[in-house]
Structure formats: C-alpha cells, structure tokens
Design goal:
Helix content is about 10%, strand content about 40%. Helix 7 packs across helix 9 (about 780-790). About 25% of the residues are buried. It folds into six domains: about 20-115, Immunoglobulin-like, CATH 2.60.40; about 125-225, Immunoglobulin-like (Sandwich); about 230-330, Cadherins (Immunoglobulin-like), CATH 2.60.40; about 340-440, Immunoglobulin-like, CATH 2.60.40.60; about 450-550, Sandwich (Immunoglobulin-like); about 555-660, Immunoglobulin-like. It is mainly β and about 800 residues long. It has nine helices and 53 strands. The longest helix is centred in the C-terminal third of the chain and has 30 residues, at about 680-710. It has a five-stranded mixed β-sheet, with no helix packed on it. Strands 10-17-16-13 form a four-stranded mixed β-sheet, with no helix packed on it. InterPro entries: Cadherin-like_dom, Cadherin-like_sf, Cadherin_C, Cadherin_CS, Cadherin_N, Protocadherin/Cadherin-CA. Keywords: Calcium, Cell adhesion, Cell membrane, Glycoprotein, Membrane, Repeat, Signal, Transmembrane, Transmembrane helix. It is a single-pass type I membrane protein. It is found in: Cell membrane.
Length: about 800
C-alpha cells in the first residue's frame, strides 16, 4: 500500500521533551487509505505491540483515523473535509492526535496536516439579487453586488467574476486590502422601462483550481419608471353609428387609452375637453376611470343628426402627461315621430244643400322623420260623402271636399276622422277629427204617421171634446219644423166642416164642436193639412174619417099591434081556435144600430101561461092548446120588447083578448090572399101620388146639389161622398104601399110581402081607423126602415 503522507519525525531524547510526528495528507481521501506506517516511523516492533494495549486519541468529535496493530499502519476511517475541520480557512490545517502505548506507558504526539484540494465551487450567499434602477439613471452609475465565497484556499479560491452579456450593464472588480474581491455593476447605456422593464443578468464567480469551479447568482435589474410616456388611444378618431332613442345606459364606446409607464404614471383619468359642447355632454356621460361612454339623455335624430366628442386621457404622474382623441357619433333615424295633421280654414257648419265639390277644410301633413319614415299616406277613416284631393302646388297639403249630396235629416253631423300613416317599420299613425254640422234647409214636407185616419166618436158627445191628436212630423229644424194645422174647408149638407170640427193649429188636437147623433149623422170625411213655417213653406194633408159610434139611446117602439099612446089593444078571437094558431104578432122597431136594435120579446104578464106562447125573436103569440069551457073569456097579455144595448131599453104593449063564439075567419086563411086585393081603392091611389111626389122632390134635390158641388172649388183630395147622403137616399125610397082595414088582413099582407123579400111596417093615419103599410126591400136595416116608416102620406 502506498503512503500518501509525508512523514516528519522529531525525537526529543532529553527527559521531559515531547516528540511530535507530523504527516501531511490531502483532504477528501478515501476510507481505508493509509496515511503512514506509524510503527515503523516510531521505531516500534510489531511483535511487541500485539501484546500491548495501543490507543489512538484524536482531538476531534469524529474519529477520522485508526491504527492497525498487525501492520503498524495509520489509516483513514472517515473522509476528512479541510473546510469542515478548519472552518476559519487558515493557511495551514492540522489534525492533532496522541498515540498511546501502555505498559509501559508511552505517548507519541502526531500532527496530520490537511492540504486543500479544489473540492468546493464558489457560491453566492444570495443566488438572486434584485436591483431597482430608475430609467432616468445616467450611464456610468455604479451599483454594488454581493461577493461570492469559496471555502477552498490558495489557488482553489475565487479568482475572478464574469457577467452575462448585456447592452446596458458591465461589472468592475476591485480587490480589498485583505485580498477580497468586490464586484460593482456599472450602467453603460441609458435604460428605457417601456422598452425593457426588467434586465435579467447572471454573475459568475470562477476559482483558480483544477478543474475550474464556478458559482452563479441571478441579478434582476428592475427599471423604475419615470413619467416619460403620455397616454395613447387606439385611434385618433372613432366613428360610431347609433340609433336614435337608444335606451339610457347603453354603452357607446369603451375607450382604452394606454400609458407605457407604470404605477401612478400609467393611471389614466378620462374627461371631456372644452371642445365638447354642453348639449353633447347632456346626452352622453364619460366614466373618468374606465373610459366608458354611455347614453344619459335622449338621442333624437330630428334634434341632432351627429355628435362630436373630444376626449382627454391624463395620467397621474407628478408631471401629468395627456393624450386626446375625437369621437364622431352618427345618429340613425328611427321611425319615432308620429305624423302630424294640421287643419286650416275649416268650415264646421255648412248648409245641407251645399254643392258637391265645396271645400270643407285645408289639411296639411308632416313628419319629422326622414326617408320612408317620413313618407305619409292620409285617408278618411270610413266611407263618407267627402274626399281628399292633393294640392297641385303643395304635395303635403290636401283639400277636404264634399263628394256627394248631404242630407241633414239622415246624418245631422259628420265626425270626419283623418288618419295619417307613415311608411316606416313599424308604421306610425295619427288621426284628427273634423266635426261638420249641417245647417237645416226646408227640404222636407211634414209627414203624418198615417195617410188615413179613422176616428170613432161616440154619439151624444160633449161639444168641445177631444177626438184625437193628429200630429205630423217634420225632420227639419227650427222654423222649418214648426207646424201649423188646418182643416181643409168642405161642406156637407150645406154645413162647413169648420162648424162641426176644430183643430188646434199648434199641436193638431182635433175637437168636436157639436153633439153628434148616430141616427142622423153616421160619418164624416174631410182633410187636414199640416204646413211648416219654412220659406217657402211645405205642407201635406191627411184624410180623416170620423165614424159616429151608436149608443143605446133609443128605446124600442112597438109598431104592431098599433094603439094610441097609453091605450090597450083589444083583439077578438074565436074560442074554436086550434092549437098553434097565431093570435097576435108584436113588432117593435129600434132606430139604434143593428147591435143595439136587436129586439127580443117576452111576457111581462099573462093570464094563463099554459094557454099562450110568445116567440122571443119574432114576437108571435100563438095558442098552446084549444080553449076549454073552463077558460076565461077575457085574457090580458103584457108583452115587453127589449133591445140588445147596455143598458137595455124596452117598451111594453098590453093586449086584451076576448074569445067569442062568432065564426071569424082565421088569420091563417088570409095569408094566401093575393096582394092585389082592393088595389084600386082610394087610399092606394093617394099612396101612389105621394110616392111620385116624394120621388120628384128627391130628384130635384139631387140635381141642385150636383150643380152646387160642380161650381164649388175642389180640394186637393176629393173626399168620398158621405154615407149620410146615401142613407138618406135609401131611406127616401118607398117601394110599395097597401091599405088594409083590420089587423088580420094587415098580417096577411105582411106575410106575403115578407116572402117577396120585403119588410112591411104599418103606421097610423090621421083618422086612426086604417093603416099605411110600407114595404121596403130587405137588407136596408130596421134603422133605415124607421126613417121611411116615419113618412106619412
């Protein structure tokens, strides 16, 4: 085994002297390496050492070395680090130990010198060094850097420093009095933080050992900003399109000015410059911190079509710098304005006969919008007799004219709604209503609700009583509507209508001026005229038919059997009369109407109810059985004739019957006698002469009446002839008359004439002994018969 140590043996042979054995080895030798043959160097025999106790005492806390008794060698048991063993970095480093041999005791002092090898690289206490350098620093300015350390010594320690490549920095190395090297960082070129804010450098420390070892440190140079850059906008001019009526709060633009500086030098405040009008600032707002421009007012294209804003961005440096830009906002028109209708020279009242083509109003339309949003179509809301004509010289003006004839009575006023609608999307519209009142013109004649009035008037009416109200209607207004009523004059039987009737000229109430009697006058026919107060006046008339309604005001008159007033009729009949023989016939007449004159007969008193019967409809009294010797010769019959009115009126007749034994010819044997019996008697001659005279007088009266009517002015509507005249003519007709001497013959004649369709009535003659019998065609009615029967010859 080779020896790595140099051996120095010093022996002190005098008493008390210490002997020191020195060796020198390199640090970091491998374990088991032999430092020296200590036994040989100390002159000790190996054989004697085996039986003796040997101890190696090292003055450290680690056992670096040990002694081999067999070989006498001192060897390494743990690596020796000179920098650890001698941290103070002396020029010489020794490891001291004692080699002790007992029995006898011997002590040997040994020093082991540790030589340095380049086993440690230089290193910096801080591997990251940060420097803040203002970008305004001038070239040549120096900045101290920390030194590197190397535990090695001698040539193995730090030899030099090196700096990574940089355009702005270099290093200078200075050596102190103790040989320590110091490094300064030197600025060689001006810095620009905006160009490069951080410079990263590497400082390398290199030792002189073999092989060369080095250590590095990161040098971070942070360039401190100075306010040398103004804020910059992305653009100098921003052009933005915005629709009008954009909602408040809408973002217009987010300005982003940049400042290459940092810190407060890069903090920017935005504001409007003096070149921005106050009106613009009323519409837009600017956030001074974020640069957001938003809408705060109403954007109206019709008010301003574009806005111009000048914005300033200023930093917060000690000496602030600023930048500017311009924002152009073009407003896009929206259909936000309703069309407007203006009406001029309007005629709110026109006469209803205004000519077609008359201008009612001048209409103008306008819209503040532009393009299609400002194009307007105008129309009338619904069909009316008016149209709009566009003006030839002014395209936005129209003439509202009458297109059809107007009639106030159909439509008294028109609410003409004009609708103007633009062509925008969505379209907007406006409307305007023009009210046109029509003035009345007297173009309508009064009209009665009916063309013919039938008025029923109860007879025996009070004079002055209201019959009816004949009110006409005139659709015109005011004086054209005020009506006056007249009765068109007409004479009936030489009596003027104004003597019979009266009408209120203001309200058309019709009154009766006299009391009417159905038995004398049954109806009237005349005309009433209604005339307005217009100019010229218009009128119309209506036909009025007055019908007199009958009242039951006439009691029946018993005409058969005839008797003087208050007297009793006496009749004789043979006792041999058969059952069912006609004893007498009671005939009563009633001058009332057919309904009221319908007569029924009944016994009021009868001597023997089992002997006589009375037909309630024809008044015939007949025997119910033959007379017996027990029956009385005198019989008293009281017959009442009652009409059909309400209340019913009646008349009575008392008939005294005397039964005789004389053979008297029965009534039934006389019924078939010829009607020409005793036809040429004197009485019949008088009757013929009377009839001829009456007929002649009637003919003369009719002719005179016709002549007078032809000479009289005729009304607009000729009234039909009165029924009274017709009735009087009918009543004046007497067809035939026959005179008989007693009741039996009269009844025989009555039956014969009845079979021929005639009604026979007998009336008293002045002498009272005979009867006038008048036969009248059936169907003329009892009321007519009464008139003719009242005529005597």
């Amino acid at each position: 085994m080779a020896y790595w140590a140099s051996v120095f043996v010093l022996a002190a042979l005098w008493p008390g002297a210490l002997s020191v054995t020195r060796y020198s080895i390199a640090e970091e030798m491998e374990r088991g390496s032999v430092v020296a043959n200590l036994a040989a160097d100390l002159g000790l025999e190996l054989g004697g050492l085996a039986q003796r106790e040997v101890k190696l005492d090292i003055f450290t806390n680690k056992k670096y070395l040990d002694f081999n008794k067999k070989t006498g060698e001192l060897y390494i048991v743990e690596r020796i680090d000179r920098e650890y063993l001698c941290p103070a970095k002396p020029t010489s480093c020794f490891l001291k130990l004692d080699f002790i041999i007992e029995t006898p005791l011997r002590i040997f002092n040994i020093e082991l010198g540790i030589t340095d090898i380049n086993d440690n690289a230089p290193h910096f206490r801080r591997d990251r060094v940060e420097l803040d350098v203002s970008e305004s620093a001038t070239p040549g300015e120096r900045f101290s850097l920390p030194n590197a350390v190397d535990p090695d010594v001698g040539i193995n320690t730090i030899k030099t420093y090196r700096l990574s490549t940089s355009d702005h920095f270099t290093i200078e190395i200075q050596t102190g009095s103790d040989g320590t090297q110091y490094v300064d960082l030197v600025l060689t070129k001006s810095l620009d933080r905006e160009e490069k804010a951080v410079h990263k450098l590497i400082l390398t420390a290199v030792d002189g050992g073999v092989p060369v070892r080095s250590g590095t440190a990161n040098i971070i140079v942070r360039v401190q900003d100075t306010n040398d850059n103004p804020p910059q906008f992305d653009k100098q001019t921003y052009t933005i399109n915005m629709a009008e009526n954009t909602p408040i709060g809408t973002l217009v633009v987010n300005l982003n000015a940049t400042d290459l500086d940092e810190g407060s030098n890069s903090e920017i405040v935005y504001s409007f410059t003096l070149y921005t009008s106050e009106k613009t600032q009323d519409v837009f707002t600017l956030n001074p911190n974020t640069g957001e421009i938003t809408v705060k007012g109403t954007i109206d294209y019709e008010d301003m079509k574009f806005y111009e804003m000048h914005i300033e961005a200023k930093d917060k440096g000690a000496h602030p710098l600023l930048g500017q830009c311009k924002i152009m906002v073009d407003v896009t028109d929206m259909n936000d304005n309703f069309p407007e209708i203006t009406v001029q020279s309007v005629k709110n009242t026109v006469p209803e006969n205004v000519p077609v083509g008359t201008v009612i109003a001048l209409v103008g339309v306008s819209d503040r919008d532009t393009g299609d949003n400002g194009k307007i179509n105008i129309s009338i809301h619904e069909a009316m007799p008016f149209i709009l004509n566009k003006s030839s010289d002014r395209p936005t003006h129209y003439n509202l004219i009458v297109s059809e004839p107007l009639d106030r009575e159909k439509v008294p006023e028109y609410d003409i709604t004009l609708i103007a609608r633009d062509t925008g999307k969505p379209p907007l519209s406006d409307n305007e209503t023009i009210t046109v009142h029509l003035l009345d013109v007297n173009d309508n004649a009064p009209q009665f609700p009916q063309s013919f009035y039938t008025i029923r008037v109860m007879e025996n009416n009070a004079p002055g009583s209201l019959l009816s109200s004949l009110t006409a209607f005139d659709p015109d207004l005011h004086e054209n509507q005020y009506l006056v009523y007249f009765i068109i004059e007409k004479e009936i039987a030489n009596t003027s209508m104004s003597m019979l009737f009266s009408i209120n000229p203001e309200n058309g109430n019709l009154y009766a001026l006299k009391t009417f009697d159905y038995e004398i006058e049954k109806e009237f026919l005349f005309h009433i005229e209604a005339r307005d107060s217009g100019s010229p006046p218009l009128s119309s008339n209506v036909t009025v038919h007055i019908i007199i309604v009958d009242q039951n005001d006439n009691a029946p008159v018993i005409v058969s059997p005839w008797r003087a007033h208050g007297s009793v009729v006496e009749e004789k009949i043979p006792r041999s009369t058969d059952k069912g023989s006609l004893v007498a016939k009671v005939i009563a007449l009633d001058t009332d109407s057919v309904h009221n004159s319908r007569i029924t007969y009944q016994f009021l008193q009868v001597t023997d109810a089992s002997l006589f019967s009375l037909d309630q409809y024809n008044g015939e009294i007949r025997t119910m059985r033959m007379f017996s010797y027990k029956d009385s010769r005198h019989h008293r019959l009281v017959v009442v004739a009652k009409d059909n009115g309400e209340p019913a009126l009646s008349a009575t007749v008392t008939i005294k019957l005397l039964t005789v034994e004389t053979d008297v010819k029965a009534y039934s044997d006389m019924t078939e006698m010829p009607l020409e019996y005793d036809i040429f008697s004197d009485i019949n001659l008088y009757l013929v002469i009377g009839l001829a005279s009456v007929s002649f007088l009637l003919l003369i009266t009719i002719l005179v009446t016709i002549v007078l009517k032809c000479q009289k002015a005729k009304p607009s509507k000729t009234a039909p002839p009165s029924r009274n005249s017709v009735i009087s003519e009918r009543n004046s007709t007497i067809v035939d008359s026959t005179l008989v001497s007693n009741d039996a013959y009269w009844y025989s004649l009555f039956l014969a004439e009845t079979r021929k369709g005639k009604l026979v009535v007998r009336q008293p003659v002045p002498k009272g002994s005979r009867y006038i019998v008048s036969s009248i065609p059936r169907g003329t009615g009892l009321s007519e018969t009464s008139d003719s029967a009242a005529s005597t010859l």
